[in-house]
Amino acid sequence: MPVRIDETDRKILSELQRDAGRPLDEIARAVGSSKTPVWNRIRKLREAGVIGAQVARLDAEALGFEATFFVLIRTSEHDAAWQSRFLDAVKSRPEVQEAHRLAGEIDYILKVRVQNARAYDVFYQALIAEVKVQSVTALLSMEEIKSTLALPL
């Protein structure tokens, strides 16, 4: 069930989405409040599960991860045992940044971040050795136009 949030909570969440590492004083000033009430609201939002883990967002290209592939997977297997093996395989691979089960002709889509095409092939070979799939289509992203985790509050 969604948590009820007011306009001040929305302002706080928007500021945190911009940069959660900013000092609390700056966030409080930006939302027009003082430090203690803002801290209490943030604590309550964390306890309610609205705010999850706070992590550093790294520059993938600066670290040598220059290739992003969107991997479309079709399977003829839909039993629980296959799905469990597939989910374990996907969750255990750090190259997979996102995985979604889809409605329609494609069963799953993965967002895979690797150094280059050779590294993608290593990932692909390991995946198909672990789980049987009907077909795999890999699409190389030529340019990232927009990437955000921010929700439209």
TrEMBL record:
Keywords linked to the UniProt accession: DNA-binding, Transcription, Transcription regulation
Pfam families named in the record: AsnC_trans_reg, HTH_AsnC-type
InterPro entries per UniProt: ArsR-like_HTH (IPR011991), AsnC-type_HTH_dom (IPR000485), Dimeric_a/b-barrel (IPR011008), Tscrpt_reg_AsnC-like (IPR019888), Tscrpt_reg_AsnC/Lrp_C (IPR019887), Tscrpt_reg_HTH_AsnC-type_CS (IPR019885), WH-like_DNA-bd_sf (IPR036388), WH_DNA-bd_sf (IPR036390)
HTH asnC-type domain: residues covered: 5-66
Gene Ontology biological-process annotations: regulation of DNA-templated transcription; response to amino acid
A GO term for molecular function: sequence-specific DNA binding
GO cellular component, one term: cytosol
Name of this chain's protein: AsnC family transcriptional regulator
Species name: Pseudoroseicyclus aestuarii
